[in-house]
Amino acid sequence: MKVKLATQLLSRSVAESLIFCKDKLNLEDFKNCDATVNFVKIMNDAFDILNSHKLSGFGFKKAVCEQNIQSIKDFAVRFNKYISGLKFDNGQCVVESNKKTEFIGIAVCLQSILNIYDMHINCVNPSLKFLPVYKCSQDHIELFFRSIRSHGGYNNNPTCRQFIAAYKRLLIHAEIREGGLGNCVPLSQINILNCLSSKQKPEDQINNSCSSSVGFLEKTFKDKEVENIDHDHDYFSANTTLSQYCKEVVIYIAGFVSRKLGKSLACESCVGALFGNKENLMASLIQVKNRGGLAYPSDNVIKICTVCEKFYRREAFSQQNLYKIKKDELIQRTMAEFLYTSVFEELQSHALDNYPLENHINLLLKAIAENYFNLRIKYACNSISASDKIRNFYTNLILFKGQ
């Protein structure tokens, strides 16, 4: 089983999304999801405890130490009581069925953590100050096996001679890289050299032009592909109408885009225009999922991201093939949509301090659209490639049979 798929499904984000659909959107299909939400939250907390690896973590993601050991003990008792009461539709207890391995395994791991804590931390001469439980998982050996199998080229079932050669090579230069095809993913990223394109990002142009000033120059935007566009008709067909849930998701993504650009931009005026008032989004999906690290986008960012989503849906519907979607054309259409529309009015005077080609309003609009389309297209492509392949099925079947 690919553990990363289970952790994505049994996560607090899924539980909060179910609650949002039930309480905020009042969707009929989610009115009886309370038991599912409780199950997902308990499993998420169990995964967080078993994957904790640093003291700076939040909640159960914090490594086991003196400050949180009591809460972990209470959760272990609650988890054991919960799985003991789980039953199938026929009344059979889960822990007494042939599906009991995963549930009992998690309970045993939680108890093992408590025993290790008593042996190495809560003792007369403690050998550890805290316990990073992730260090005790089998992810490391899985990554090591994945690296050994990758040395065999097309043959991922090495012979003894191939294993010895790969093992020696890893001992000399033990840099393990995982390509996303194994049973787990590494939590620590390994930086590699990459070839940067000569094309400059719009946020870099904003940063490079922050100190430039030429007095009062008018805002211009010239693009021969969008000069003759008629703005009197609706560009969006009926299939691009966004539901209330889609609108909330767009607002959530807009917050991510604002937070990302806020970290990379050096212009204080542009950064201030990205974020909005928290009180205006108290009933949004961001408020439901926020635990202190999410950002609240401004109305302008939400407006731009909504237009981007409609253009993306229209393009995806017309092309019927994600690989034919051209991101640059979508960005141009988005900028053309706001060509005669007031956006970022608070930056009008600030825009006059820069050259026309370095207009921060246009560059900020382009940066928002580019980041939104990058995220949207990447998610769509990952959804296509995430489908199970027959090669992967037979590969695991051969490995488990030892052939």
From TrEMBL:
A Pfam family of this chain: THAP9_C
Span of domain Transposable element P transposase-like GTP-binding insertion: 1-62
Domain Transposable element P transposase-like RNase H C-terminal residue range list: 134-168
DNA transposase THAP9 C-terminal domain boundaries: 232-380
InterPro entries: THAP9_C, TNP-like_GBD, TNP-like_RNaseH_C
PANTHER family: THAP DOMAIN CONTAINING 9, THAP DOMAIN-CONTAINING PROTEIN 6
Name this polypeptide is given: THAP domain-containing protein 9
Organism, scientific name: Lasius platythorax
